[in-house]
Design brief:
- By secondary structure, the protein is α/β, with parallel strands linked by helices.
- 41% of the residues lie in helices and 18% in strands.
- The protein is built from 15 helices and ten strands.
- The strands form two sheets. It has an eight-stranded mixed β-sheet with strand order 1-2-4-3-5-6-9-10, sandwiched between helices.
- The longest helix is centred in the middle third of the chain and has 19 residues.
- The protein is globular.
Length: 339
């Protein structure tokens, strides 16, 4: 049983620029380095989906500070093509490629003898739930994994769409129609179908207010459709559900994880089906390694306090971006129990 306490130790961490190369491109990051005498290890911060401005905007500052106070330096960097990181941003970067990028960071840390690089742990949110177990299995010497709002093997957008439509009090038949059109549109794209066929099959989906807001009011052009289709036709896909499969044999991958895992979920998560992931983790990680699960009843996908967990709730209701009081203590106390 994980007992929540408060932590009083304050460790001073130096913020230092840190660069490493991946595929001939220089990625820009920040290293929060604590003194050699206090270092238990070093934690990589692995992002979720989308572009980043992590270094300049000081992403996950409280998380990194908590890790520092627990005796761990941290490394966080901006994705390729974002801010000062070179190259071109690729929203569809594969999970395997993201994992290889992180391993390049680990190798650079070790080559430079950065304090803590002898014991590397992982913290990651959302999409990192695919990336981090891939790192663990590919690298083979990861000390622990802190998973926040982890994912199961497949595309989560149908869950996100359904949960946010439910918050709009749409009739069930309207929600079912929109979800059907989402899946059917994906099937048409993946099978090589035409732009016109996809447009005709997704009329209600494209007219829905939530979807229009989600897409910033933009409608896809024929050229954008063709460009996307070239990528989408190559991905693993379940024609029955219309979902992309991000990691093949994901259960087997999780079952091979051999380090302690702390899995944290917000019970108001409307982005990812946290109950499904929790069950998956219990079946796989729970059978083979030291697994601790903590859920927060009033937290959303990003572990901020929420009433509904809706995608735009904090923005629309002008709610503060605050974590539940015990969230950071859960991390620090779990790390304390590892030592």
């Amino acid at each position: 049983m994980l007992v929540i306490t408060t932590f009083n130790l304050i460790v001073k961490a130096q913020n230092e620029p840190f660069e490493f190369e991946y595929k001939g491109v220089t990625l820009d990051g920040v290293l929060n380095r604590i003194s050699q005498s206090n270092t238990k290890g070093l934690v990589l911060i692995i992002h979720g989906s989308g572009k980043t401005d992590a270094v300049a905007k000081d992403y996950y500052k409280d998380i990194r500070k908590t890790l520092n106070n627990s005796g761990y330096s941290t490394l966080m960097w901006d994705k390729m093509g974002c801010v000062k990181s070179g190259g071109t941003f690729d929203y569809y970067q594969s999970v395997e490629d993201s994992a290889a990028e992180a391993i390049a960071a680990i190798n650079t840390l070790k080559k430079q003898n950065i304090p803590g690089s002898h014991a590397v742990g992982l913290w990651g949110i959302s999409r990192a739930g695919w990336v981090n177990p891939t790192i663990i299995n590919a690298y083979g010497d990861i000390k622990f994994w802190i998973s926040v709002s982890g994912v199961y093997a497949r595309e989560n957008f149908n869950y996100l769409l359904e949960q946010n439509l439910l918050l709009e009090d749409l009739p069930k038949d309207s929600i079912d129609l929109i979800l059907h059109e989402w899946a059917q549109g994906n099937r048409i794209v993946h099978s090589g179908g035409s732009f016109e066929a996809a447009q005709a099959a997704t009329i209600h989906l494209r007219q829905n207010g939530f979807m229009q807001r989600f897409n910033d009011g933009r409608q896809i052009t024929k050229k954008q459709y063709k460009d996307f289709q070239k990528r989408f036709m190559d991905v693993s896909f379940d024609t029955t559900t219309g979902q992309q499969i991000y990691v093949a044999n994901f259960e087997a991958l999780l079952s091979q994880v051999n380090c302690p895992v702390l899995a944290i979920f917000g019970e108001k998560d409307k982005n990812v089906d946290w109950r499904r992931t929790k069950t998956l983790y219990e079946k796989t990680l729970g059978a083979n390694t030291n697994l601790t699960i903590k859920t927060f009843p009033n937290a959303n996908h990003n572990l901020f306090k929420a009433k509904t967990g809706g995608f735009y709730e904090l923005e629309d209701e002008k709610l503060p971006y605050e974590h539940p009081e015990e969230y950071l203590a859960t991390i620090s106390d779990w790390l304390k129990e590892l030592n």
